[in-house]
Amino acid sequence: MLHELGVPASHEAVSGGLALIVDACRDDGRIRVAPKAPMYPCYTAEAARVLCRFGLTEHEVVKRTTSYLLDGAHDAGGWRCNFTRFGRGPETHCANPGATLYVLDVLRHVTDCRDGVEVVDRAVDFLLDHWETRKPIGPCHWGIGSRFLQVEYPFIRYNIFYYVYVLSFFPRCRRDQRFQAALATLASKVDDQGRIVVEKPHRRLKGLAFCAKGQPSEVATVRYREICSNVAD
């Protein structure tokens, strides 16, 4: 299975899960994450980013999904699903910041998409604009409030750490004052040894040492140093 997927031997423990994602990809690039689950852009992106993180960026499934995502951007920038839990107010017609962040987490692995691709540049600008407006927008009402500003790890939900991490891969961000403000806010949460302190772990993971609430996380700090390296380029 590892040979067929092109997965390094060090990832043997997760090869079965990666194979399930590959098998769940449709011909049009969408990925159904569960038998009856809708195929929203955010679900597809979340599945595809797993493949990318395990070195399958050049796999046919990832290429197919990347094309689907690039072709399906919202008119105003970013990506949007049709989830309507909060009704259909004017704000729900905007793209979804969470979905947009997940998609950019896929596209950051595609070097040619990091700069100079209009669809991607508009998505980046959409997230930078959200830093200023902070309003709950999109079908899922993503906002930038106190919850967003609490450091979460691992990268599962829309929060400042994940936001800055993904955007740091896109050169157009590094010069932007809004990104610089978000980066400064994140930097203010680092302890005196330069380590990231997890403020809000996912409730199902809070018992794990690497993301314990109020404690520095060595693995999260590796990601923070990656941000610092990106902005130093």
3D structure, described in words:
- The model has no long low-confidence stretch (mean pLDDT 90).
- α7 (160-167) crosses α9 (177-187).
- The chain is mainly alpha-helical and 233 residues long.
- It is 44% helix and 0% strand.
- The chain is built from 10 helices and no strands.
- The protein has helices spanning 2-5, 15-23, 41-53, 60-71, 97-107, 118-133, 160-167, 171-174, 177-187, 218-232.
Helix content, binned percent: 40-55%
Write down the overall mean pLDDT. 90
Distance between the termini: 37 Å
- Order of secondary-structure elements: HHHHHHHHHH
Structural class: mainly alpha
Radius of gyration: 17 Å
Poorly predicted runs of 5 or more residues: none
Principal-axes shape call = globular
Largest sheet: none
Total number of strands? 0
Strand content: under 5%
The total of helices stands at 10
Give the arrangement of secondary structure elements.
Elements: H1 2-5, H2 15-23, H3 41-53, H4 60-71, H5 97-107, H6 118-133, H7 160-167, H8 171-174, H9 177-187, H10 218-232
Helix pairs in contact: 3-4, 3-5, 5-6, 7-9, 7-10
